[in-house]
Amino acid sequence: MSRYQELTTLDQWAQVYEASRQQPTLVFKHSTTCPISANAHREFERYLETAPEGTAYVLVKVIESRPVSNQIAQDLGVVHQSPQAILIRDGQPVWHASHWDITAARLREAVEGASAADAQG
To answer: What ranges in 1-121 are assigned the alpha helix state H?
Structure first.
């Protein structure tokens, strides 16, 4: 079972962002006060139960760690939404989804697509 790292500081984000140039990274931005985000978080957890190795998984609580959430939006050029999932490959966002579009199946499809592209690359 793959686990995630919770990002709470800008330094942690900077390290994860740099590492995403070497390893695909799935960022999940979560609002702890939103029922839609609670559902997306359950889907993220469900996905992680069988998630493949070789991808880094991180979580940002957008209220508690707003500076980190804002920096992610700025660095990636992806307008902030919550909940939001962003897949980063080679330091660039290659897929993102928000709200009810975040499902275990969609996360799996996105990550497997990035892994297939890496295998071909």
So the answer is: 10-19, 35-48, 66-76, 104-120
Task: Say if CB 93 and CB 105 are below 8 A apart.
Answer: no
Domain count across the chain: 1
Tokens at 67, concatenated: 């500076």
As to burial, measured by CB atoms within 10 angstroms (0-12 exposed, 13-18 middle, 19+ buried), residue 108 is middle
User: pLDDT tens digits for 27-77?
Assistant: 999 999 999 999 999 999 999 999 988 999 999 999 999 999 999 999 999
The CATH code of the domain that includes 66 is: 3.40.30.10
pLDDT digits (tens, 9 = 90+) for 89-110: 999 999 999 999 999 999 999 9
What pTM does this model have? 0.92
Residue 107 is part of which domain span?
A: 5-120
Q: Tokens 């998984």 map to which residue? A: 57
Helix or strand or coil: residue 65?
Answer: coil
